[in-house]
Amino acid sequence: MRMDDDFPYVDHLPKLFRKSPLIKREGIRWYTQRGSRQEFFHWYRILSEAYPGNIIPYQYVPEFIGVSRASVHKRAKNGGLTIFSFVVTEQKYTILGSRKDRDTKKRYDLAILSECMEWYSRLLDRANRSEIDYPSLDEMDQED
């Protein structure tokens, strides 16, 4: 049974992500920017102001929703989730003195919390229709 993907997405993007040549789209709604550590703080501030209290680290999404990491990644690549990524770069200089930027292993990924909550509620509705035991958010809070 396929889950319908007609739930509402965040319809506004910060101006930085609309037409900036620095932003690379990895998927349909997956936006990646590369830059220095100082640029990361600027990037994070812009996202925090655009989506106050509505962003979650991408690594938390599988646990939050109760699905596998592979299904979250597949959904993000297919445009089912909005993901913002920042890859930290560093500058290296060659022997001839030319500057070369290269990616480090530091990558920060953020997802939109409201989209994750909507996906969770759709899974919960589907489980209720098929009579599969799927814990609600209240039951999950009581277990902790």
Task: Compute the CA-based radius of gyration.
Answer: 18 Å
Helix content: 40-55%
Order of helices and strands: HEEHEHHEEHH
Q: How many beta-strand runs?
A: 5
Mean pLDDT: 79
Low-pLDDT residue intervals, each spanning 5 or more residues: none
Kindly describe this structure:
- With 144 residues, the protein is an alpha+beta fold.
- The protein is built from 6 helices and 5 strands.
- Strands 1-2-4-5-3 form a 5-stranded mixed sheet.
- Strand 4 and strand 5 (99-112) form a beta hairpin.
- It is elongated, with a radius of gyration of 18 Å.
- The mean pLDDT is 79.
Output the keywords.
single chain, 144 residues, alpha+beta, five-stranded mixed β-sheet, 6 helices, 5 strands
Summarize the structure.
With 144 residues, the chain is α+β, with helices and mostly antiparallel strands. The chain is 40% helix and 26% strand. It has helices at residues 15-19, 37-50, 61-65, 69-77, 113-130, 137-143, and strands at residues 23-25, 30-35, 55-57, 83-93, 99-112.
